[in-house]
Design brief:
By secondary structure, the protein is an all-alpha fold. Helix 2 packs across helix 4. The protein starts with a helix and ends in a 14-residue tail after the last helix.
Length: about 70
């Protein structure tokens, strides 16, 4: 997992680290000197990148078709 985090772009990695430490997007933005929207966008992109790298971006395989 650490290797995947290190592969993220610097801003995505930073906002992910701040968020994992319990900070809000607003607090991350202030600390990083970016807008709250940019912090949220970087967090969204970081999460999407990690999900894709872990193979979790596809449909939920726990359910058979029609069981939802």
């Amino acid at each position: 997992m650490i290797e995947l985090l290190l592969q993220l772009p610097a801003k995505q990695r930073a906002v992910m680290a701040w968020t994992l430490d319990g900070f809000t997007a607003q607090e991350c933005a202030v600390a990083m000197g970016i807008s709250p929207e940019a912090a949220r966008q970087n967090l969204s992109r970081a999460r999407a990148g990690l999900k894709a790298a872990l193979g979790l971006d596809g449909p939920d395989e726990r359910y058979e078709e029609g069981e939802r």
